[in-house]
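Figure 3 (text version): structure tokens given as input.
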């Protein structure tokens, strides 16, 4: 009896297996959907692993490949994995209609079932690990300057180009734009999604507006690398310029800036970096979005005293709701890395470095004219700028133009290269679109220190925020 029973069971066993699970597993292979999902998953995983390995060994360094490896392929893999149970379910329904009404059960005392379960768990773990690694790498990928600057290359070209040549060209975008911590990370990724949407629907602003309303306070970002207690002392800066009348002898101005900070010899916070001392708080109420017009300034001094300076004739911009803002690094260093050059300075540097031959009469004026010309696109400038300069020179003095044609072309090439690094007509970024607050060269348009240091913001006693030149700089010794 016993043997018979055994035999019976042995005969029964394969059938039971083929019965529920076996049917399904094998069945998946027989439905087009099942085959598709398995092939999709396998191919995605293989390509992902090959791709990551190739990237690891530096075979390519291309953001579009990154999008493929870290976004599209994992998407396909997850989609494929989800399809497998769907295919199984559909197959099971078919099979149940036709053959039998066997119950689907997992029997752990059945070695085949055990094997199946172990296999399933191992495969799941492997999949999770792969997804984990890809997710981690993908997260770094979406944080790389490469991704920020290149993937949206048309949109970010101005910022990326200016960033690459700046002192922060090796600091990644996220260190200033996101900084540490989960909260800002989530905010950044959400706003990133909005931005991707804006790019896809072509609805982003041109130029991208500045100041960045939601930029993280500099306390959390800049101060990871620079700290206000650092003492810089004085810094001598030289400014060199020419005029249209004199292209040969430069005007030189030297100033010694009182950058200051915490002075270890006096124990005091002094000079320009006084504003960011931990014992000082300067707050201001801007009257427009650009923060170029300031209505009120509140100050808390190291001795604990407070004061408020008010400029009475300031009008609030239409539709702008004034908000108090605590002054930090970015209210002076608004261009620490996206540094755009100034057209005059570009031309003057050309003359100084002899990239533009100063002997050619009128080259400064004509150079500025072509630099400031409203070319329709960068390609338009590439096609026409050098010739435009040549034409202007011919009109001015045909004999000189013929004699110096070579040098005029060289000057044109220099100016063109500068144009391409600073002007993006399609993004509406022209010379001076993004101005700096550091100093007072653009004081007329409301940029720089003189927004507050203008002798027009008064406290109750009628005192003002001073514009005394020697407060900020003096002559170098
Ligand atoms: C050293 C810090 C720093 C780094 C690194 C940095 N940014 Fe910025 N970024 C800023 C500051 C500061 C502003 C201007 C904020 C303001 O005026 O409110 C800004 C502004 C911008 C703007 C708004 C337009 C403008 O020019 O004002 C964009 C877009 C931008 N950054 C993109 C990027 C991208 C892309 C990268 C990396 C390729 C990057 N940033 C790297 C600090 C940084
Ligand atoms: C990840 C580190 C890091 C962060 C974050 C950072 N910086 Fe810097 N910064 C540097 C380094 C490194 C240099 C020196 C570069 C050099 O000497 O070429 C520098 C240089 C500077 C300089 C001097 C530039 C010059 O002309 O020589 C200024 C000003 C500055 N940073 C301001 C800022 C501000 C403002 C922020 C925040 C928006 C900031 N930095 C964020 C690393 C950083
Ligand atoms: C009130 C305006 C103002 C504020 C606020 C300010 N700075 Fe500056 N900072 C300056 C000026 C002006 C200079 C000299 C600029 C130059 O080199 O042209 C300077 C220079 C620097 C330098 C370069 C020093 C050197 O030796 O070249 C660094 C780095 C710097 N600042 C970092 C910071 C950081 C970080 C913060 C915020 C904690 C900050 N600054 C806040 C105005 C300011
Ligand atoms: C948002 C307004 C505001 C801006 C912008 C501003 N300052 Fe000031 N600054 C003040 C106030 C307020 C005081 C303190 C006045 C007082 O205590 O009576 C001050 C004080 C100073 C002092 C004296 C610090 C000390 O040792 O007591 C210096 C130096 C200075 N500013 C330089 C600058 C420079 C340089 C810039 C531009 C790069 C600048 N400030 C931009 C508001 C501003
Ligand atoms: C609140 C601070 C502050 C005051 C007050 C101030 N300056 Fe300046 N000035 C600066 C800073 C900061 C720079 C450096 C700008 C840069 O690094 O590009 C500068 C640069 C300059 C330059 C060289 C750049 C240029 O614009 O040609 C000159 C000249 C100058 N200042 C003259 C003056 C005179 C004259 C006064 C007095 C009426 C004065 N400044 C008052 C902060 C100040």
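Below: residues designed for each position.
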């Amino acid at each position: 009896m016993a043997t018979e029973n055994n035999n019976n069971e042995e005969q029964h066993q394969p059938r039971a297996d083929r019965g529920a699970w076996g049917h399904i597993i094998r069945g998946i292979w027989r439905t087009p959907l099942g085959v598709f999902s398995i092939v999709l998953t396998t191919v995605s995983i293989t390509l992902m692993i090959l791709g990551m390995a190739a990237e690891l060994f530096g075979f390519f360094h291309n953001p579009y490949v990154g999008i493929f490896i870290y976004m599209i392929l994992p998407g396909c893999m997850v989609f494929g994995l989800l399809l497998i149970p769907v295919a199984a379910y559909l197959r099971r329904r078919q099979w149940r209609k036709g053959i039998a009404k066997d119950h689907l059960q997992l029997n752990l005392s059945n070695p085949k079932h055990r094997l199946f379960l172990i296999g399933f768990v191992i495969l799941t773990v492997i999949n999770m690990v792969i997804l984990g690694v890809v997710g981690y790498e993908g997260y770094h990928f979406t944080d790389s300057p490469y991704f920020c600057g290149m993937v949206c290359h048309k949109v970010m070209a101005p910022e990326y180009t200016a960033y690459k040549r700046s002192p922060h060209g090796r600091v990644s975008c996220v260190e200033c734009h996101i900084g540490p911590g989960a909260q800002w990370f989530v905010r950044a990724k959400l706003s990133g999604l909005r931005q991707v949407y804006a790019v896809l629907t072509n609805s982003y602003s041109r130029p991208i507006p500045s100041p960045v309303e939601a930029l993280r306070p500099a306390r959390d970002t800049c101060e990871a690398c620079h700290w206000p207690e650092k003492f810089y002392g004085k810094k001598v800066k030289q400014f060199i310029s020419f005029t249209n009348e004199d292209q040969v002898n430069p005007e030189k101005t030297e100033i010694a800036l009182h950058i200051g900070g915490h002075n270890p010899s006096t124990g005091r916070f002094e000079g320009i970096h006084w504003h960011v001392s931990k014992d000082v708080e300067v707050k201001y109420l801007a009257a427009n979005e650009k923060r170029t017009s300031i209505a009120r300034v509140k100050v808390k001094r190291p001795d604990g005293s407070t004061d408020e300076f008010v400029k009475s004739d300031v009008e609030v911009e239409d539709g702008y709701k004034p908000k108090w803002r605590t002054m930090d690094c970015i209210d002076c260093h608004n261009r620490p890395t996206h540094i755009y050059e100034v057209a005059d300075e570009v031309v003057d540097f050309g003359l100084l470095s002899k990239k533009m031959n100063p002997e050619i009469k009128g080259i400064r004026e004509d150079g500025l004219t072509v630099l400031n010309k409203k070319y329709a696109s960068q390609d338009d400038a590439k096609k026409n700028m050098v010739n435009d300069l040549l034409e202007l020179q011919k009109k001015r003095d045909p004999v000189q133009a013929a004699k110096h044609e070579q040098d005029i072309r060289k000057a044109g090439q220099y100016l063109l290269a500068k144009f391409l690094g600073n002007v993006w007509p399609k993004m509406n970024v022209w010379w001076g679109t993004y101005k700096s607050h550091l100093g007072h060269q653009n004081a007329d348009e409301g940029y720089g220190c003189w927004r507050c240091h203008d002798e027009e913001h008064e406290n109750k006693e009628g005192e003002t925020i001073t514009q005394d030149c020697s407060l900020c700089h003096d002559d170098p010794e």
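Confidence is low (pLDDT under 50) at residues 1-17.
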